[in-house]
Prior knowledge:
The protein is an alpha/beta fold and 254 residues long. The protein has helices at 2-6, 19-27, 44-57, 66-73, 94-98, 116-128, 146-151, 167-176, 214-217, 237-251, and strands spanning 13-17, 33-39, 60-64, 82-87, 92-93, 106-111, 134-135, 161-163, 180-184, 190-191, 201-206, 222-225. Mean pLDDT is 91; it is low at 1-5. GO terms for molecular function: methyltransferase activity. Keywords: Methyltransferase, Transferase.
Amino acid sequence: MGDELAGSPKDRFLTVYGRKPVLEALGDPDLRVDKVILADTARGPAAAEIQRAAKAAGVQVQRASAHRVKVLAGNGKQDQGVLADVVAPRMRALAAALDDRRPPARLLLLDGITTPANVGMILRTATAAGLSGVIVPRRGVAALDPMVVKSSAGVAFRAPVLRCGSAREAAEMLVEAGYSLFALGASAGTSVFDVELPQRSAFVLGGETEGVGEAVAELVTEWVSIPMPGDVESLNVSAAAAVLSFELVRRGVS
Length: 254
């Protein structure tokens, strides 16, 4: 498991792209930017401004082809020829977290949540609630990009993000490590306010349209619901995450 524990370099940074987000990251004294990558086609006042800001922050600027910048940013339309890798001090591989002498007691697992605003708000809420980990798979969930950072009001940089390949992979690792998996479902008979939680618990938050995917549902220990006496079928996933996170705060466990 050595390679898994070491994680990918992508498990240490949040990559932001575009002139304004990069300048904001460079100008924030609470953030540490690892490097800036500027397209070799980037010239003029905008490129000069970024280079000055990077120099002032003591950050290395690397030149790369415009195509390479697009590939690294993962967004061909909005990168504006520049990106920055920002150190996320609490982001690491899920395998490393599970291998700790005292693994996290309570975790959230995102499964198929593709709207950046939802991912950002969940990261902000979970961090505010003091949860020890939010599992954000690299596949099947919105990329951790400037939209997520913006929606989190910048909290994403210091959120306890745990990375792995997919939600199914995460679920398998959690079960193997002795976690019980709980998933939110509108028709579940047990309320999230009443369910008994074992020492190690993970809560699956499903996607905006499909909910929890079949691959993860197969491994769910118990389904729970949020009681809604009013005439509403379901909550937005970020709202549901807020209810769940602060129920854990109420219980005094995170």
